[in-house]
Amino acid sequence: MYRTLQERYPYAHCELDFDTPLQLLVATVLSAQTTDVTVNKVTPTLFARWPTAAALADADRTEMEEVLRPTGFFRAKTNSVIKLGAALVERHDGEVPPRMADLVKLPGVGRKTANVVLGNAFGIPGITVDTHFGRLVRRMGWTAEEDPVKVEHAVGELIPRKDWTMLSHVIIFHGRRTCHARRPACGACPVARWCPSYGVGETDPVVAASLLRYELAPSAAGSEG
């Protein structure tokens, strides 16, 4: 199933825009309860105004809240970003540490965020168990676990470690574009033949094809399906 989905989404990648580990770490924290598209709209302004961990730590709270307002929960997120900047300065000289044990000790950073950063900023394989990933691996029968950490370990035993980061991208892409939470496009799914949940969504191929979403994919992939 993984190989087939990888063929379906060969362009799968982290959809948060970033140039540095710090930018990815902050963007991932901001992505809670909002879309990557929304985060990508505010981060250029955020990082132009506060480009380093020290700058984030010393930011004017009211000014940052206005920048982050479109992401929702902007007061809490502003507080998280300022505390995160301060912790990086105090503990790691302003640099993002490339170790899970250090990342999860930072304020607002859990295993999901740490795996995003490790896999995409440092090239260290990690499985990102977000809402889409957990939902899909359960729907496809890979695991019955609900706890994200247990899901991470269960799926990690099925797929070679070197593939963990790409696996995360591919599964998340499939969840956003085809295997939707409320009305999955079963009739247009490339892994339908192996999926124990086939039929929970639209099975008619024509109708299912109309449900496919490629709004975030490269234009070359827009006609797939």
TrEMBL record:
Cofactor details (free text): Binds 1 [4Fe-4S] cluster.
Could you mention a single GO BP entry for this protein? base-excision repair, AP site formation
Domain (HhH-GPD) ranges? 30-177
Tell me the cofactors it needs. Answer: [4Fe-4S] cluster
Catalytic activity line of the entry:
2'-deoxyribonucleotide-(2'-deoxyribose 5'-phosphate)-2'-deoxyribonucleotide-DNA = a 3'-end 2'-deoxyribonucleotide-(2,3-dehydro-2,3-deoxyribose 5'-phosphate)-DNA + a 5'-end 5'-phospho-2'-deoxyribonucleoside-DNA + H(+)
Highest taxon of the lineage: Bacteria
Gene Ontology MF: a single term: class I DNA-(apurinic or apyrimidinic site) endonuclease activity
What top-level class of enzyme does the UniProt entry assign?
lyase
Instruction: Please name one Pfam family that this protein belongs to.
Output: HHH
Q: Which UniProt keywords apply?
A: 4Fe-4S, DNA damage, DNA repair, DNA-binding, Endonuclease, Glycosidase, Hydrolase, Iron, Iron-sulfur, Lyase, Metal-binding, Nuclease
Q: Which SUPFAM superfamilies match?
A: DNA-glycosylase (SSF48150)
Record carries keyword NAD: no
Keyword flag Cytoplasm:
no
Q: List residues binding [4Fe-4S] cluster.
A: 179, 186, 189, 195
Its EC number is: 4.2.99.18
Similarity comment: Belongs to the Nth/MutY family.
**What is this protein's function?**
DNA repair enzyme that has both DNA N-glycosylase activity and AP-lyase activity. The DNA N-glycosylase activity releases various damaged pyrimidines from DNA by cleaving the N-glycosidic bond, leaving an AP (apurinic/apyrimidinic) site. The AP-lyase activity cleaves the phosphodiester bond 3' to the AP site by a beta-elimination, leaving a 3'-terminal unsaturated sugar and a product with a terminal 5'-phosphate.
This protein is called Endonuclease III
Give the species this sequence originates from: Janibacter hoylei PVAS-1
